[in-house]
Amino acid sequence: MKKIIILLIVISLLGLGCTTQDATDQGEQVPVNGEDNQSDEDYQPDEDVNGEDNVSEADETELEEYTPQEYRILLKNYNAIPRSLDINRTDTVIWRNEQSDPKRFFTIKSEEGLWDDQKLAFGKTFRYTFNETGQFKAYVPPWNGMNVTITVK
């Protein structure tokens, strides 16, 4: 009987350890320009996967007044953190695979076909600059917790 009770306590403690949340999971949207929670040696942004600059030409007077921001979406514990973003046109979103236990490849897809499917290994990133206004959805099949809605103003 004691073995069963001890086993139940161990399983409960393990379950609690799997339910921790990042601070960014609280609905915060954190621009990453000028601030970084990781050391410089830890984070090295990848170049555009397609080798192209995906920034379209825009009205220069409008862009002179606004400095584009970068936003990070972490793929961790089979969740996207945060799950939604409100950004401005010409802002960039960076997805980073931080699924470490177990390490997995994730494929990021655009529901609207904005980019080709992107496979990310652990620690790798994919960045996309949004140049059109609207609501866009990205997903990582088959994990629904990794669906992201990005609203571009």
Dominant shape? elongated
* CATH third-level topology: Immunoglobulin-like
Any guess at the CATH architecture? Sandwich
Strand order of the largest sheet: 3-9-8-5-6
Helical region count?
A: 2
**Main beta sheet strand tally, sense and closure:** 5 strands, mixed
Q: What is the string of helix and strand elements?
A: HHEEEEEEEEE
Mean of residue pLDDT values: 76
Classified in CATH, the superfamily is Cupredoxins -  blue copper proteins
Radius of gyration, rounded? 18 Å
- The fraction of residues in strands falls at 25-35%
> What is the SS-derived class?
alpha+beta
The low-pLDDT segments are 18-28, 30-53
Distance between the termini: 61 Å
Assign a percent range to the helix content: 10-25%
CATH class, named Mainly Beta
- Count of domains: 1
Total E-strand runs: 9
Region (Disordered): 24-64
Organism: Methanohalophilus mahii (strain ATCC 35705 / DSM 5219 / SLP)
Protein name: Blue (Type 1) copper domain protein
InterPro entries: Cupredoxin (IPR008972), ET_Amicyanin (IPR052721)
How is this structure best described in words?
The chain is of the alpha+beta class and 153 residues long. It has a single domain, classed as Immunoglobulin-like. Helices cover 14% and strands 33% of the residues. It has two helices and nine strands; from the N terminus they run H-H-E-E-E-E-E-E-E-E-E. The protein has helices at residues 2-17, 60-64; strands spanning 70-76, 79-81, 84-87, 92-97, 106-110, 118-120, 125-129, 134-140, 143-152. Strands 3-9-8-5-6 form a five-stranded mixed beta sheet, with no helix packed on it. A hairpin with a 7-residue loop joins strand 5 and strand 6. It comes from Methanohalophilus mahii (strain ATCC 35705 / DSM 5219 / SLP). This is Blue (Type 1) copper domain protein. Residues 24-64 are annotated as: Disordered. Residues 37-64 have a biased composition (Acidic residues).
